[in-house]
Every structure is written in structure tokens, then in C-alpha cells.
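With this grant's support, we have settled on a layout for protein records. A representative record follows, to show the layout.
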Amino acid sequence: MIITSISAYAIKSKVRYELAGQVKPQAQLPGSGYLRFDPYPQLYSQQSETLIIRVETDAGITGWGETQAPIAPEVAQTIIERVLGPAVLGRDPLATNVRFMEMFGTMRVRGQLTGYQLDAIAGIDIALWDIRGKAEGRAVGEVLGGQFRTELPCYVTGLRGSSRQERADEARHWAEQGIGVKPCLGFGVREDTDEIESIRNAIGDSSTLLVDGVWKYSFSEAVRVGRAFEQNGVEFFEAPMLPEDVNGHARLAEKLDVAIAIGEPLRTRFQFMPWFEAGSMSVAQPDVLRNGISETMKVAHVAEGFNIEVAPHTGCLTVVGMAATWQTSSAISNFLVQEFQPVMFDTFNRWLEEPLVVRGGKLQIPDGPGLGINIDIERFEEDVDSVVTIGEPAG
């Protein structure tokens, strides 16, 4: 079997991905559809953007993947068209690790080891695993060595009510369904302390409560607010400080009992390793759409050697990325909990002939071959903004 074509579809849906109800949208950047939400410095889109990958083979098996590309998916699209696609075209799709390392090697000595380059690699890698599963007639989780679980405990990210009471009511809604909640904070120690106390009171003592600090606190602020999180039974404190501050997070982990969770900006086990060695995290959050299935499993294996649990990250993504993430999580022995994006779930589940399912507060891992999903092409194409293809597509 060989790869005959690769298509990369830039997706732009009109639904806007938002983190928190108390943020203030700033003016749109000139000449773009992007903006910031005060107080967060990173860009967000007025639409839900991502990049979907389709890989076809001479055996008639098609694989689907997704690249985490919430901003400018055209960048990763061009990398696939000009660099990565030609590197794997005509090659064996079943040799997933070999293909990953070939793609990783294309720009490695030039320092292109993160960002859009790795995101683009991840999308192709996922599609190859989909092909491999379909070729074997087994779900990807089984092909990875077996599934430890067929459903995943999960939590939702962000509470979008405009008032504290609305956000508390929203948290209670999820808790009543058996789903954990993770508000996005970083608005100040006093405000965030009051917010987390309000949420804990709303959901009760037994419901899962996590916090995303969105990298906003100084060290002293993170210690102070972390104490309040401990008192309110927060299970992990994600992204407390600057994303480059390995040693600062190690110091914070020594000060607090609440687990420190890190991973969204990191690609590959090589970038996770300094954090593991420094004791800077107790929960690792690799993103399958930024590391691929191949590398996420390697990150998980290394984390296990440090007795670190894994809670895979997800952001703005579609059901393709969800299926890939859920399959991967099923095969991780040191798995903790799965991030779940209900707005994205509701927006893109219509692509599937048989939608993904949440039942009893758990994400149900599809049991079909490969990623376990079948895409309705007509519905999918309604959200396609642009596509590039290299090679010879079937038909």
C-alpha cells in the first residue's frame, strides 16, 4: 500500500470559540478575522478554524486527520502542500512511526520543531493511524496495543455566562450530568478566589473541579490563588504562569498540594522532558492535534516513567480530532481525564453519519475501524474554506 494523495482542508465555521463569560472582546485586528479577549494576550478567531487532512491510498483506504490550527490554518496547509506531503507521498502509510520521523526530520536541523510544523505533522500522522486501523479492521485504540477503557471521564473548559450566578448555574448543569468543569480564570487573586468558591458551592463537594489559569499569574499570585484552589478541592491547576517558566512551575509545585497541569504549548517528548525532570508538572496535557497519535503515545510513556498522569488537551477542534483524541486516550495506561469542548461537539457532530456520543457523563469511544467515524462529505464541505491537494486523488 502506498499514499497516492493528500488533501488539506482549511475549515472556518461561523461559531466563535470563547473561553470565559467575563472576558471583554477587543477590536478585530486590521485586515483579519482575529481579535483578543482582555486580559488574555493570545489571538482568537471570529470563527472556529482548523485544518482537516485526508490521505488516500492505492488500496482504496482513506484516512482522516486534523491539525490544531485555531489561527491561520492556511499556514499548516501550505507546509503540507510544500514540505510534508511530498515527503510521504508514494510511501507506505502503515509504517506510522517511520513516516512521523521522516516528517519530523524534514526541518529538524533548521529548528522547526514546534508550532505550525509539528501541528501539520500531527494531522497527517492521525490520518495514517486511521488508515492503519481500517487496514486491520480494528479501532486505533486497539492497534495502539489495546484499550484500557471504552469510555472517558471528562470535563468542559470555560464557563460562558456573563454573570457569576450564570456561570455557577452553568457549572451546576454540567455537574448534574456527571461532567467536570474547568473555568478559565486569570482575572486576579481576589476575583478568582470568589469565582472558584461560587462554583464549588454550586456543584457540591463531590463534583470534579479544575482550573485553567491561562498563564496569567505571577509566582506570588499563583501561590496565593493556588491556596484558595486547594481549599475548594480543585484537582488540578492548569497553566498558572508564563509558558516558558519551567523552574518557576517547579517551585510552585513544591509550594502547593494541588496538581500542576501543563502541556498545551509543548510538542514532542523532547519538549516535555525538561518539565518532567524539573518536577514542574504532575499532570501532562499533550494535544493529539499538535503531537499526532505517534508522539502523544511517546509522551504518555515517558510521563509514566515519572509517575505523571496524562490528561490530553483539546482546543478548537472538530469531531475528527475528538475521535482521534478519544482513541488515543483509550490506550494510555496513565490516563486521568479528557478535556471536552461541547460547543465544538455540537457544531461539528453533524459531519458524521453516526455522531459521537456522550452518555452518563462519559465520552463513548467509537468502536469502528480506524478512528471509528464516517464523514458525510456534503455536510463536511459546507464548512470548507479552501483546499490544497497533492498527488492523484481517487476517482
Residues 142-364 form a domain with the TIM Barrel fold (CATH 3.20.20.120). The first strand starts at residue 3 and ends at 13. The two ends are 17 Å apart (CA to CA).
